[in-house]
Structure prediction request, 165 residues.
Amino acid sequence: MSLTDVIDGTRQAVQTDRHNAAVSFSVDHALAANTATVVDVRVRDHAFTVDEPPALGGTDQAANPVEYALAALGSCQVITYQFWAARLGIPLDGVRVKVDGDLDLHGFFGFDESTRPGFSDVRVTVELDGPAAPEVYEQLRRAVDEHCPVLDLFRNQTPVTTTVR
Prediction:
């Protein structure tokens, strides 16, 4: 099934019933047995591991949470570029995205309560390959920036509720 088929099918389903546009995602996490930093993650029928580098007390068995956050942003950018190129009819032969982020550990460790525990700066570099003119790819970039869900998470505050049981 092509991306345009997905777009058309989704448009029809949502026009039929607006509630068809609402989706929810769920991810389960558990500290791995006999570890201090290794987390086992389950997403639908997929599993992966999260850890910290030794400098942060981990065993470096996998990427850490902020690296996965950057990976989520970069992956979402690649997918959103593909999606919007198809939607706008823009030829696109390839997409490469690099995401860099700066984080000050004063916030995470509580050494300075005025320092954010999260990223102070995130930089996204996108390389697009294709035959269209640069201004066409600039139009595509604007569409992606307006519609990328993970970019929206980085740019805008999202309500979060935490319940401890």
